[in-house]
Amino acid sequence: MEFETAIALVNDAMLDQSGRLLNDAELVLFRGAWYGQTYEAIAHESGYAPSYLTRVVGPKFWKALSDALGETVSKSSFQSVL
Questions:
Q1: Helix (H, G, I), strand (E, B) or coil at 64
Q2: Fewer CB atoms < 10 Å away: N or C end of the chain?
Q3: What pTM did the predictor assign?
């Protein structure tokens, strides 16, 4: 699956489940995770603090995505679920 297809699928699932699309921080996190980056690398490239991504954005995003997809996902497992 290509990144553009995956992000469209995720946005559709999030819209159906919670009535919203990914926000900027979630999109940055999703893109970095898609390409196998660490939280530190994602933070460095995006300007977000690593602790913000790992402690605030990440847990809420993976929970919201799990709810939207109907299956538990994480940074390391979401591609196989998609």
A1: helix
A2: N
A3: 0.89
